[in-house]
Amino acid sequence: MLRPVLLLLLSSVWFQLFAWGPTGHRVTGHIAQKYLNKKAKKALHRILGGESLAMVSTWMDEVRSDSAYDYMADWHWVTIPDGQTYEQAEKNPNGDIIMTIERIIEELKTHKLTPRQEAERIKILVHLVGDLHQPLHVGRGNDRGGNDIRVMWFRAESNLHRVWDSDMIDDTRLSYTELAESLLLPSDSLRKAWQSTSVRQWAYESMAFRKQVYDTGNSRLGYAYSYKYFHIVRQRLLQAGIRLAGILNEVYGH
């Protein structure tokens, strides 16, 4: 009984600290918008009232101050310890990012939601597909996804999770459109390969980056760390956007 109680107690803390920064989420939305087919683009324009995927990508963070949405707190992350699969890992009774994405995709496919329900679920989907591609949103279970690992980012105090969420991205001084446009788009065959993978495979990809992510040396991070690993950030933002478009095209593009 102790572990579920601890999960409940820690959930609000994880919720406050977890998410790509606004720039990263908007990059993912911007990329996805590029890969929507005509039917999906038209449907989403109607459902979202003309808002772009980039603009709705931060909605889940924007409603954190509204207690009516507290039930979504644990949906931003999942814990899968080293050496375990998602199926083997202990489940959070409040849900997690994997089960939420899978559930929302199935709900959207029914086409039986109210307009408000549909719009909210799309906003959640856009956000969480981005989050799952941030390696530290798949926590190993002993440091709250890197939040407990204190580091220096140049001369500022930070933590490992924040470095991956926003410090490396913000240090480029690029807008979300500039960062998105700087990404090398994949070939059609690679795009299809990325889109053919499952939600759980995306989580395992994030886990596979743990060796690089935790390569913090003396905990003083800056140019060298970013030079070695920012390409992972770029790759994951790109993959998230392309895979998000694949889901939305499947739901609305037929």
From the structure above, extract its key features.
two-stranded parallel sheet, mainly alpha, 254 residues, 5 strands
In brief, what are we looking at here?
With 254 residues, the protein is mainly alpha-helical.
> Which overall shape is indicated by the principal axes computed on the Cα atoms?
globular
**Structural class, from secondary structure content?**
mainly alpha
Q: Quick check: average pLDDT?
A: 93
Q: What's the number of helices?
A: 13
Named at the architecture level, the CATH assignment is: Orthogonal Bundle
Largest sheet: 3 strands, mixed
User: What is the strand tally?
Assistant: 5
CATH fold-level name = P1 Nuclease
What order do the strands of the largest sheet run in, or round the barrel if closed?
Answer: 4-3-5
CATH superfamily: P1 Nuclease
Number of folding domains? 1
Helix coverage percent: 55-70%
Structure explained in plain terms:
By secondary structure, the chain is mostly helical. The chain has a single domain, classed as P1 Nuclease (Orthogonal Bundle). 59% of the residues lie in helices and 6% in strands. The protein has 13 helices and five strands. The chain has helices at 2-17, 22-34, 38-47, 53-56, 59-62, 97-110, 115-132, 160-170, 176-182, 188-195, 199-208, 210-213, 223-252, and strands at residues 78-79, 138-139, 150-153, 156-159, 220-221. The strands form two sheets. Strands 4-3-5 form a three-stranded mixed β-sheet. A two-stranded parallel sheet has the order 1-2. Helix 2 crosses helix 13. It is globular and about 50 Å long. The termini are far apart. Mean pLDDT is 93; it is low at 4-16.
